[in-house]
Amino acid sequence: MSETAPARSGEELAEAFARLDQPAVYSPAACEAMAATIARITALKRDRDAVILAHNYQRPEIFEVADFVGDSLELARQGQRMPQRTIVLCGVHFMAESAKILSPDKTVLIPDLRAGCSLADSVDPEELVARRDQLRLLYPDLQVVAYVNTTAAVKAVVDVCVTSANAVAICAKLPTQHILFVPDEHLANYVQEETSKTVISWSGNCYVHHQITPENILSVKRGLPSVKVLVHPECRSDVIALADAVLSTSGMVRYAKESPAQEFLIVTECGLSDKLLLEVPEKTFYKACKLCQFMKMITLEATERALMLGQFEVVLEESVRQGAERSLRRMLELS
Ligand code: 13P
Ligand code: SF4
Description:
It is a single chain. This protein is an alpha/beta fold. It has three domains: 2-116 and 295-309, Rossmann fold (3-Layer(aba) Sandwich); 120-207, Rossmann fold (3-Layer(aba) Sandwich), CATH 3.40.50.10800; 212-287, NadA-like (Rossmann fold, 3-Layer(aba) Sandwich), CATH 3.40.50.10800. It is built from 16 helices and 13 strands. Helix 2 packs parallel to helix 15. Iron/sulfur cluster (SF4) is lined by residues 92, 117-119, 149, 206-208, 234, 269, 292, 294-295.
């Protein structure tokens, strides 16, 4: 979790972003233009009584305008605490929906409607209810657990939500043996491994983490045997098996800052590796990462337009919102 840094000049941005080794994206001219857009966004936020919440995978320039940066669990909690009337969610659509579910009286905006998620797209409520009813004939105690990377309509028909930060702890606490865990098959397998529950999985995965292979890790470990391998639990189980720690995105940031180790291999979306390169300059971070095209849809320009035009507002049917709020609140109580 991190709060906003004070506004920086174009020159300061160019100097900081040089660490990312992307000279075409963060040239001095590009950084000057970014600094100007950041200044306009900062003024618009005040004018519109708005707050910007950003996920850890966002572009580094988005962190310059964010009032709060965190993982899915922290974003869900933080939205409710902010006094501003408008929340701009720089992340993907299910994160903006979660903010709206928990803060129904606020206006919640997502800067680009294309910012979806392959996991959220892999389950719909009708299919899920049919599968649940079928399984309950066999296992009457079955509870349905939804990863937070789901639509509000799916959250409305499940017993509880979880995030990568609390999935194991919450599933272990449920007063039931059988769990239908949707939609991430890899996270479901991880929960099965880490608890004594019987976990039935769904056929869904994150297209970003699913592409990462054990060879991506082993090729780095061969040259650097003592590197600490931090893996997101959306990865395949043969990748998780190579981890020193399995953590949410903010869990990785905390671990990297607090660990006495100096070298880390970051196995998740590339935005997180970039964030660590910038925030923890005294340590070395190697990447075994892939880009999430959905997270990268959010730009400074789209964020400025969102504030200027009040777009794109998240609107939920009240019955769906209330159902989804029940499963999200149960998660917050249990975590
Ligand atoms: P975190 O909750 O760990 O930030 O993960 C969200 C996500 O979408 C990972 O792909
Ligand atoms: Fe969804 Fe994967 Fe992108 Fe996270 S990284 S938002 S799970 S597609």
